Amino acid sequence: MVTSGSGPGYRGLPSDRGRNRPPAHVSTDKEPNVNAPVRVLIVDDDPLVRAGLTMVIGGSPDIAVVGEAGDGSEVAAAVDAYAPDVVLMDIRMPTLDGLAATERLRARPDPPEVIVLTTFDADEYVLRALRAGASGFLLKHTPPAEILRAIARVAAGEPILSPTVTRRLIAHLSDTGAAARQQHATTALHQLSEREREVAIAVGRGKSNAEIAGELFMSVATVKAHISRIFTKLDLNNRTQVALLAHDAGLTG
Questions:
Q1: ∠ CA(133), CA(104), CA(80), 5° rounding?
Q2: Is the pLDDT of residue 148 over 80?
Q3: Whole-model pTM?
């Protein structure tokens, strides 16, 4: 059983730094809390990986590692104890893998954002994690500066999906069920207004709010309002899920 401050893979800063302040992460395009560092929980069964990530993140004044966990089964307790804004989640762990842990975590009320950690060539289930609500993924050999930028972007409500890498990921997956996914996505997107559909397609193409605003001749605030309505109508909780839906419908090519 995991207990606060004990266990080989679980440790963190005291929990009284967490729940009493508004979280820096957002899932509906609201502005992050800029007065406190982004709180990060690292989940990986390799202590060397955890130590390396902690060292990288420790050099940033705007991001703080508040806890570590060595298995997906420890994530719920760690999140309750340390209130992270972003979870860096490994995929392959001995008791509960990162995919199942992500699904469980994102089903909770007001969950933290999740960035999946992967070796890419070995892991063919990243897309499942993204569909479950993860905001993106990082390769384990990602340069430190890019890791910090990715955490900051996700905490601010922006996914970290490169269109090029997304295409490579999808190419690694079986096409089984593609027709069914396309039909589901097309049906779902028909629930949107024409303008909301245009915004959803732009999100699927990796456009930022500012880029969408310029492309569709609307304000950034209006873009954010459209995205919030898309989340509500389609029962989604982040931009990545919108992007995947647009991709499944064949609208991002």
A1: 105
A2: yes
A3: 0.66
